[in-house]
Backbone:
């Protein structure tokens, strides 16, 4: 016998009601929907075969007298000749008002779909995207029959200011208008009170008429590179033609500065709209300087050499006769390297206003070099090359115009470093060059080159394929560290090659530490060590007291001199453990302690005592100065 049960009416209607509510909510929500279902439902299909309106055409592709087909039997040798084959072909013809791609849309307020007139309205920060074009506005209207889109901004009821103006972005260009109306298929349209941006160029026009995707005409336009609503400078023209990502052409144009028109005009204007790097002139700016006079600063030219190199040339010219030239090439290759080089030449002619000098002008010449370079570690793992160079004449910063911080910068330094690691980090090589200079003293110190090489600890007696516990002699380890340094100094005001060679100093240092881990001798661990180092010098200094002049004379002997050091060490250590019990204590049961006694012996014989001398430093001979001849 079947068991029956009672069902309450509210449970019976609750399920369909919830499903109906979800369907209505899903269909009418304006956020993040697509027009695709809308266009698909309004697309008409033509019936070429059946008057009943079916979307299927029946075509008989084989005559009836030839009614043979292969039967779909597993035995392919059996052929049936009593059937007629007819093919059914669907032919779908879309209406002319359908789109080639869906439109993704959203709106903060609401979206209204009018089926009868095939129109769609978005209210409150509407956003619609079709292929590469994106439209934002307070109100967006789309008419499917005419393919026209109309967008306009709103008004803030509190302040009566424009709100959410129509903004369209396509192919890298951007425009903000009061009203936008255009055909979605042909890309033809018209905008009112438009702010148009193409790369770094800004155009403000009363009316912009777009005849296709790439060409537009503007009426009463303003052309500038300043992104302010009221630009510092611009060119005004009655008519403009804009070709997307290529060029803009205008008729007679009038320049303006700070909103003040100049009483001059150019017969026509050609303005490049290329995005990315392109060569061209760099506009100068007027400058006044009490010491240098009137001048043009920043006049130059930018040249793109190729995809990896470009160069900028700038110059400053002043009325008193001073000038400077700046050549700055830059280079960059992704995942390889990046850098820039700045070569500057300066010729200053400064007016003497203090009256302390008889000459009317003070003239000076100088140069300055700046170079920065870095490599990407991903291009050559284990190898790097970096450079940071700032060097030049000691008077260059002092006479640099309009830069107080640079005028008082007297310390300059540079460094260039190449490093390489190989054999899985066992060997490291570093080659560097550096310099430092004091502009007040005019002293320049150059260290070129500085070479460092290091090899990690190697075990020469250890087998490649170790079997069992190693022998005590197989734990013998040897490492190496070497340094080579060459340095010379000179004064900027007294530079010549002979003095440069006289001040040159070079030296090298080699360190070879040897370690050995012996097996434990009962509870004791014994570790002997030996360290050997050797230094090379290119000069020996000899100081002698001169009775006639009553001073110490210094003699420098050029050559090759060596100094060696050997250090022997022996250490003994162990560990002692103990426990102190507290049998009668309730809180602490025991305390465990550990003692690590260590005994070390070190011996270093004096192998360089022959290079230490005593010299008399006064006439009485009581004061003796001890010095090292190797420095």
Residues:
């Amino acid at each position: 016998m079947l068991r029956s049960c009672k069902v309450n009416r509210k449970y019976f209607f609750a399920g369909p009601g919830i499903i109906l509510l979800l369907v209505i909510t899903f269909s009418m929500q304006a956020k993040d929907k697509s027009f695709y279902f809308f266009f698909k439902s309004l697309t008409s299909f033509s019936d070429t075969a059946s008057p009943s309106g079916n979307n299927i055409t029946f075509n008989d592709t084989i005559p009836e007298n030839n009614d043979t087909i292969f039967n779909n039997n597993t035995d392919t040798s059996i052929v049936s000749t009593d059937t007629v084959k007819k093919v059914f072909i669907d032919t779908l013809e879309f209406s002319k008002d359908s789109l080639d791609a869906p439109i993704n849309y959203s709106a903060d307020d609401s979206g209204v779909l009018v089926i009868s007139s095939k129109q769609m309205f978005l209210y409150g920060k509407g956003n619609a995207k079709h292929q590469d074009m994106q439209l934002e506005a307070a109100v967006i209207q789309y008419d499917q029959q005419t393919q026209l889109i109309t967008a306009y901004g709103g008004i803030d009821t509190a302040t009566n200011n424009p709100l959410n103006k129509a903004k369209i972005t396509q192919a890298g260009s951007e425009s903000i208008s009061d009203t936008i109306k255009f055909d979605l298929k042909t890309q033809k349209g018209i905008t009112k009170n438009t702010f148009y941006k193409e790369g770094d160029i800004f155009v403000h026009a009363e009316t912009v008429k777009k005849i296709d995707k790439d060409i537009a005409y503007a009426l009463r336009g303003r052309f500038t590179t300043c992104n302010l609503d009221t630009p510092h400078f611009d060119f005004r023209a009655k008519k403009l033609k804009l070709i997307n990502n290529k060029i803009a052409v205008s008729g007679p144009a009038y320049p303006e500065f700070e909103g003040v028109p100049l009483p001059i005009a150019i017969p026509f204007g050609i303005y490049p709209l290329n995005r990315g790097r392109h060569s061209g002139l760099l506009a100068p700016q007027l400058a006044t300087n009490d010491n240098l006079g009137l001048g043009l600063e920043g006049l130059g030219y930018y040249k793109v050499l190729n995809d990896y190199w470009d160069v900028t040339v700038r110059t400053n010219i002043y009325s008193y006769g001073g000038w400077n030239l700046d050549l700055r090439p830059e280079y960059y290759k992704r995942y390889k390297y990046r850098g820039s080089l700045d070569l500057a030449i300066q010729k200053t002619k400064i007016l003497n206003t203090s009256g302390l000098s008889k000459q009317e002008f003070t003239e000076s010449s100088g140069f300055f070099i700046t170079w920065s370079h870095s490599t990407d570690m991903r291009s050559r793992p284990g190898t790097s090359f970096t450079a940071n160079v700032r060097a030049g004449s000691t008077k260059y910063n002092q006479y640099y115009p309009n830069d107080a911080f640079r005028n008082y910068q007297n310390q300059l330094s540079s460094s260039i470093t190449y490093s390489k690691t190989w054999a899985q980090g066992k060997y490291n090589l570093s080659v560097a060059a550096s310099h430092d200079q004091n502009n007040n003293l005019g002293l320049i110190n150059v260290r070129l080159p500085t070479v460092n090489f290091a090899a990690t600890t190697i075990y020469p007696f250890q087998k490649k394929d170790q079997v069992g516990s190693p022998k005590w002699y197989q734990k013998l380890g040897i490492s190496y560290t070497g340094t080579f340094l060459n340095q010379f100094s000179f004064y900027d005001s007294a530079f010549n090659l002979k003095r440069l060679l006289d001040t040159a100093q070079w030296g090298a240092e080699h360190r070879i530490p040897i370690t050995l881990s012996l097996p434990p001798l009962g509870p004791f661990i014994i570790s002997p060590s030996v360290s050997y180092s050797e230094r090379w010098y290119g000069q020996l200094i000899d100081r002698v007291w001169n009775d006639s002049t009553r001073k110490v004379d210094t003699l420098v002997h050029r050559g090759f001199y060596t100094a060696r050091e050997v250090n022997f060490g022996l250490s003994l250590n162990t560990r002692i453990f103990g426990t102190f019990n507290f049998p009668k204590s309730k809180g602490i049961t025991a305390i465990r302690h550990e003692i690590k006694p260590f005994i070390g012996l070190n011996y270093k014989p004096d192998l360089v005592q022959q290079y230490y001398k005593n010299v008399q430093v006064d006439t009485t001979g009581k004061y003796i100065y001890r010095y090292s001849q190797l420095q």
